[in-house]
Description:
Strand content: 25-35%
Largest sheet: 12 strands, mixed
Structural class: alpha+beta
Number of helices: 7
Radius of gyration: 17 Å
Mean pLDDT: 81
Amino acid sequence: MTKFVRRSEREMHFNGRVFGRGLMAVAMAVTLALSSVVSDQPSAEASQRWSTSLASVLVPPDQQAPGSVTMDPITLAQAAEDGGLGTPGMTSSPESCLSFADDSVGGLGTRTGWMQFGRRGPAIFLQVVAKIPGGFDVNRVRTAVASCATGTMTLEGKITGQVTFVEQRPLRLLFGKSFVTRMTTTFPKPANEEEAALLTKYNFHEGECPAEYVFVAVGNLFIWSLDPDPAIAVRAARIMYDRALRYHG
């Protein structure tokens, strides 16, 4: 069963903290602690969002993977207004290891579009659609990722993991192009309780922590699906691609 959670005054809570800056990192690294009322059906307002404007491209709750809890979608402008798209508490070397998706579109907060995210147990997923005048070249993501072929990610300056990207097989799309990459962050065994707590706080663990990134360009739309499960990430991207053709083709 999939469930839906409505945002209240554009606030979401992660580990008891109001969501704001850090959306890009939160999506792959912070356990979602829902503070809103969960219902089995979307509100009338949210249902309208999934059937109008670019929000119609997003994966609706009833098509999410089983067990998913999906947050009410917000515009990219609202996400930026809520505090930006930075990564508080997390740094990387080079910086592109965390910013490559945002860099490839010239800043998501400046684009017309929507995003939604949620969880399945501890797994965090993110889905985005944005309009790119003139169309989007997926090679821009490939170039951005290449700048962090190998790198590091550090949590609050205390524990550092190794970051690697491995390009995956692209989706076969009749009217679009895709780029798929798997980001794996590998953390060492925590040296103390503080480091162990940091890994838990950011939803990481000792060893390999993978995340599948699927990017699709179709017409003038940029589609992004992020999920730790490769099959689910690809499925969500295909659903958004199909909906893009249906509603905006």
